[in-house]
Amino acid sequence: MKFDRIDKQWELISRGTEEIVPEEELKRKLEASRKNGEPLKIKLGCDPSRPDLHVGHAVVLRKLNHFQQLGHQAILVIGDFTAMIGDPSGRNKTRPQLTLEEARENAKSYIDQASKILDINKLKIVHNSDWLNAMNFSDVIRLSSHYTVARMLERDDFTKRYQDEIPISIHEFMYPLAQAMDSVELKADVELGGTDQKFNLLVGRNLQREYNQIPQVIITMPLLEGTDGSDKMSKSYGNDISFTDSPEDMYGKSMSIPDTFIKKYFALAADANKDTLEKIEKQLDDSNTNPRDVKRALAREIVSLYYDEDTALSAEQHFDRVIVNKSNPDEMEELNLKSDKSIVDIISSAGLTKSKGEARRMINQGAVRLDGEKVTDINLIIRKDSETVIKVGKRRFIKIK
């Protein structure tokens, strides 16, 4: 196979990365690959403990796709076995373990969503239970002999828990070793991960040496803050932009990020190249530019990546109509009441809030409107013969008929 020049490949490979360890080694691997026509094996392990993906997950998935675009072999490792251990990265307590069946069920959803970014036809998908389950206790003892407790405690989260006298289970030490064994099994040339995975990736590099393999190069990607601009993007924090969000919600959430994160979102969430980022930076430095206009371009770009340009424009028009001009959307869910019902029951049962408690909080915060008027009474009853529109927050509507 014929590969691009190293400088051309490097331009795409290095885009948005946090760290490449070591850079010169990767360049040598790329040069050797170009000479012999053999693609590099690029490994990305995925944790199927949560089946819902968001654009924070997309940062490293898109880097794997960059390697696909360059003609290298992308390998997605479904960590169904390691999910039974539970990755302690960034945790200050033991992580819940999944059964193999739960992990595999989640993995189906993961692969389906990841196909929005990865070329599934060119992707090699493996499950690490295939080789880790086959190991016997002697194999495990031999594997664990390659790493010391002192080296494990170099990891920040283990160090903090040890100092704070928070229990660390022995099985948690096995997670980095099991993930490293994946690299040995696959003879990976490169492994990708977030910055919180650096320790695990380095263990893989070291273990390959122990097994007389050429060690993998590791590439870490920055963690993307959520739409609140503070915490890491997470569904549990409610600051995520999900792969499964509607175009309208995806656009609206993108518009809600702080102005200070516009450039970072262009780089990591919209996959902007160097030229585009320089242009964005100049626009943001220009006092005549309204950051909102740059953010609109960002929101369109993000929606286009997961849908298409026409859909992105429609989402923008929806945003202008509903959020900017405060009009009702052209289409919204309709509900036929068979009996009088409280507004709390309506918006919670319709899924506009996650619970009745949240519905009450939204009303108390002034975030619920009835035909444009703010609702102040949490005991308000909607009559069954009413024709009205309920709005919750900025983007959730339901029409009562």
β-sheet strand percentage: 5-15%
Report the helical percentage.
40-55%
CATH 2nd-level architecture of the largest domain:
3-Layer(aba) Sandwich
- The secondary-structure class comes to alpha/beta
Number of domains: 3
CATH homolog superfamily of the largest domain: HUPs
With strands numbered from the N-terminus, the spatial order across the biggest sheet is 1-6-5-2-3-4
Globular, elongated, flat, extended or rod-shaped: what is the shape? globular
Mean pLDDT: 91
Structure report:
This protein has 401 residues and is an alpha/beta fold. The protein has three domains: 216 residues, HUPs (Rossmann fold), CATH 3.40.50; 90 residues, Tyrosyl-Transfer RNA Synthetase, CATH 1.10.240.10; 68 residues, Roll (Structural Genomics Hypothetical 15.5 Kd Protein In mrcA-pckA Intergenic Region, Chain A), CATH 3.10.290.10. It is built from 17 helices and 13 strands. The protein has a six-stranded mixed sheet with strand order 1-6-5-2-3-4, with helices on both faces. The model has no long low-confidence stretch (mean pLDDT 91).
